[in-house]
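Bumping with the actual sequence this time:
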Amino acid sequence: MSFLISHFCLRDLGMFLSYQALAPPRASDPGWAHGVMINGGRQKIKCNYCHKIILGGGISRLKQHLAGERGNVIPCEEVPENVKVEMQQNLGVKVLKKLKAQEGLKGSTHSVSYLQDCDGQRNCKVSSKRGARWKRRVKVHDGGNFNLNKRDERHFQPVIVKSSLQASFPTQESADHADIAVTNFMFMTGIPLSASNSSYFQQMADAIAAAGPGYKMPSYNSLRGKLLNRSCQDLSEPLHELRKSWEITGCSVMVDRWSDSTGRTVINFFVYCPKGTLFLKSVEATDVTKSSEELFSLFDSVVQEVGPKNVVNFVTETAPTFKDAGMALMGKYRTFFWSACSAHCIDMMLEEIGEMEGVKEVFVKAKEITRFIYNNAWVLDLMKKRTGGKDIVQLASTRFSSNFFTLQTIVSLKNPLHQMFTSPTWIQSTFLKQKVGLEVTETIVDPLFWSLSERTLKVTDPLLNVLQLTDNEERPSIGYIYDAMQKVKENAMVAFNNEESDYLPYLNIIDRIWVEELHSPLHAAGWYLNPSIFYKPGFSTSKVIQKGLLDCIETLEPNLTSQVLITSHIKSYEDAVGDFGRPVALCGRESLAPATWWSLYAADYPDLQRLAVR
């Protein structure tokens, strides 16, 4: 079971419950989440962080204390930074409402600017034509219309208005605000995190920043209407060029299945080639996925749309119906391969390793650590101080890899966590008196937990590296997977000092999934035709590699004459003769992508060149 925790939701829930318990009846001010009324009175409030008792001024005085405002009260020295910023923002809204009431701000009659002092510290100056200034954080709505209600005050995000000189140099605080806004959008709407790898992601951010404050995001109707049509027109020429490149380089069709909470299944089809990845179409396939025959019919229609001669690899998950349909598709055409998704297979290996005796126990304890820390705001803040702001929970492209990346982070933060759970601050806290707090503390100081964690990561770290290799869009992974998997097995044996009883349980899982699900002749041929690997001094071939290369030649080049030419020219590649031996070609073995290297230095052998590039 994954221990990825929606910690922000759990943390907000905890704060909400404490707020309900300690706030006066019908109170709506967020400041009550951070203080306790003394003797039931609003004029005597104790700060939750430094425990100072604030006399007079009510909740506003407490918020000034938390926001670090001097004058009416001494600033709090223990308040977490995120709470401090929240209080500063809330006080800014209050001032803005007062400003509106006093001067009747309308439209663009007054200007609002959020400036930086020369020392880099942020001060908000709200300026009117009368020259009044307030040092408060404010929110700007639609170019100067300040129509705020209670809900706005609780949930607003500040808009930071800067001069053109400052616009290209955001402060760390403003960058953090932007990061959180993007993160919330991604998670709350269910957008895959891999979307952030798109080149359009940063382009979107740059365009929004260039538009400046007051820019409104397009509406649902605009996105599905005129903007969709305009985008299609703008992309028509690049897409045409992308499709034309399939004839030269070949392409891989990638099948991605998604299921929602209602059980509805959608299959997305993508086409990858060295020039980029194209989203082909999306199909509602709730009933289709239950039948390999119906899946085969759907896959066949996609192959016809892409062009059978262009397809080199058809990639799906390993579910039985998908696998059967893929194998049937390969049997029909005999000009391309079906293979399982590499990331999916690596995740299967990680899942089975996670169920091994010893490893499962490690994950149970790691889950307890993450849940306890992220379910308590004070504990989370204490951890962030010890780790320099680093998070424990790590999100990755697959479910089980997220677990292992999180365990990897816990081990890397062993010393800060140990210092945190043995510090006087922790020992004097009420959390240590709780059962779960005591159990987590015992785990953190237990040498056996750390030794078992490190033992597990000896094998899984190389697997995580393979997973990251498959996610690399800048370099196709097909020519590197075979070599990477060989290194995984070699590293496992070395990590356990060649003790077969220690490493064999892990290698049995890896080998079985590699042979039964992941390995393809394309991996063997890609490895052999990858100059950065083939020309290394320690390279040696095997029967599996030779058979994989011959299978690729016969499948991807059906013409027998061309097959003979390819096999006869391989000797020139092996001996690095002709252009293969040029000094610039020797330098390019490591620095160039394999397809680029073959495009440049195999012009004398066009049939072999075409095979290697594809």
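The tokens above came from a reply further down the thread. The first strand starts at residue 35 and ends at 38.
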